[in-house]
């Protein structure tokens, strides 16, 4: 990599799973706001659902999720009851609407015993109308799943399993507190396929401690043997000032920016060479997979779970810290399970913060989303859709001159495009249109 490009990858910028980002959420959006927004949903609005399970059997040192280690099942069982109550409250306001997508995240969703998982699914189906072809996805820790559990999930309608892998190298695994053999992962993949769950995703990471190009090559080779439909390749975000447990990771063992970039390029080249298409910033999919087809059609979407084919207008989040997206803006539940329990037990929605979208937010969100999903945006087209002039972005276009000079951008008239080799730099390009981002921003990970 050219040394002059390092400056772009070392900037701290958001991952842009939303715009404005969650950093801009505030208490001015409350449970009362959420109630009003739900009641005002258009009659034809389609829904996507997200359920957050904030529990794990053990904590991975790299984790950036909202989760807690539990040694007893009682807190999990109590949480299921809270979810049932929240689902009933939201359903009573939103009405019985169609659902095309659902995602279970965490934490570790498979911490729920099958009877409790069934209770939540039944509560959701009682309130909402799931389409016959709805995609129901779940994040899986292969260390927590049995063959019987995989069968039960398939019987409950799960259609896609996203398996956390990160890295198969034992030294790397020990350094991040997650021991998981390739054989164990392969066995779980086989169980899900035997059970009829046809969609298989793998989550991998680069930039982990003691990771090298050589060890990552071995991990990618083993991952390819599993023949997943989709592979996510995330850069490890080291933010120990926000996630204290990341202080357990030896910083001296973390690869620097040039090494991280080399790792990401190696992995991408291997995946593309094996027949996967790059999707957005950090996803790869087989050319026959819907995710790849949606990107070719420029119908790709991005939400808090990453890149998706989900075209629903509304995302309803359930559980501790869950985020929802509605036409009016974003809402987020209480970040701790204690506060979430207090609200739901008192018969209140647990929304404590959010963001009502301004006209300016909507324009910039469309620009950033187009860049993140398509590596391309036509400013004139978006400005026309919002009844405004493209001249408002003269400063932003000027600020992109450096990217053009460095070969990372092509600007023709009002059209901005990133060439294929500039895909890793898209977050930094998007940051030029982020009116809230400060130059000294420390709440985000580096762009590499």
Detailed description of the structure:
By secondary structure, this protein is an alpha/beta fold. The model has no long low-confidence stretch (mean pLDDT 94). It has helices at residues 6-9, 31-39, 74-94, 114-127, 147-155, 170-176, 182-195, 213-225, 257-273, 290-296, 337-345, 359-374, 379-385, 394-399, 401-405, 426-431; strands at residues 47-53, 55-56, 68-69, 98-106, 129-140, 160-166, 199-206, 230-235, 276-279, 283-286, 301-303, 306-308, 314-318, 323-326, 329-333, 351-356, 376-378, 410-412, 415-417. It has two domains: 1-20 and 358-448, Arc Repressor Mutant, subunit A; 21-318, tm_1862 like domain (pyruvate-formate lyase- activating enzyme). The chain is built from 16 helices and 19 strands. A nine-stranded mixed sheet has the order 9-10-8-7-6-5-4-1-13, with helices on both faces. A three-stranded antiparallel sheet has the order 14-15-16, with helices on one face.
* CATH A-level architecture of the largest domain: Alpha-Beta Horseshoe
User: Mean pLDDT score, rounded?
Assistant: 94
Q: What is the CA–CA distance across the termini?
A: 12 Å
What general form does the structure show? globular
DSSP strand tally: 19
Which descriptors would you attach to this protein?
9-stranded mixed β-sheet; Arc Repressor Mutant, subunit A; pyruvate-formate lyase- activating enzyme; 448 residues; alpha/beta; 3-stranded antiparallel β-sheet; 19 strands
